[in-house]
Design a protein that fits this description.
The chain is mostly helical. It contains 7 helices and 3 strands. The mean pLDDT is 94.
Length: 197
């Protein structure tokens, strides 16, 4: 779990801790992280093999999160109701998530889910989408994993391939931070290198 700066009460955490209240009753962060990794890896692997990329909209994105995290958290698949910041990046306010999410996915639909683009143009569009989804950050936890699963499904639907397992996570995080500051160049080059034709 990433450490967020959270505005408002710590209603999602066990009293006196930063450990998220979970369905398994795990109060040790290291144990929760270990179990969460196992569950999410299994669910992601199944989704990559079996989940159709169809009727894709903001609800589809919320459902991806629900599929990944519903065994752990009651709020899986629901939009956060608190404001978040992480490593100096303030994500979109909770009150703006739903309308911005709807617009983002309407734009993606109008772009035919990036189908038919050459690799250069595809990398540009994918970088912009990655940045937009990162700034949306619709969930209390699990944003990056949901985003990477969604982008994997989208990239494959568009006729390319991608493996975030091959990515330097620190580099991707630095690229996302730079993008939040207005410079998408590192994110774009990182995405370009990850995309397989």
């Amino acid at each position: 779990m990433g450490v967020y700066s959270v505005q408002g009460t710590p209603k999602y955490c066990y009293p006196g801790t930063t450990v998220l209240i979970n369905r398994l009753g795990l109060t040790d962060q290291a144990e929760l992280d270990r179990v969460e990794r196992q569950i999410v890896l299994l669910k992601s692997t199944i989704a990559e093999r079996e989940l159709p990329f169809a009727a894709v909209d903001f609800l589809y994105y919320l459902d991806l999160h629900r599929m990944l995290f519903s065994e752990l958290y009651d709020w899986a698949g629901t939009v956060r109701d608190i404001d978040l910041a992480k490593k100096g990046t303030s994500f979109y306010p909770a009150k703006d998530i739903e309308p911005l999410g709807e617009r983002l996915f309407a734009r993606l639909r109008a772009q035919d889910y990036l189908c038919g683009l050459e690799k250069d143009a595809f990398a540009d569009a994918l970088s912009e989408l990655y940045h937009d989804l990162n700034m949306l950050h619709p969930f209390r936890e699990g944003n990056g994993r949901t985003e990477r699963l969604f982008l994997t499904l989208l990239v494959r639907h568009a006729g390319f391939d991608i493996s975030f397992a091959d990515c330097d996570r620190d580099l991707l995080m630095i690229a996302a931070i730079q993008a939040a500051q207005g410079d998408l160049s590192l994110l774009r080059s990182t995405m370009y290198d990850l995309i397989q034709a």
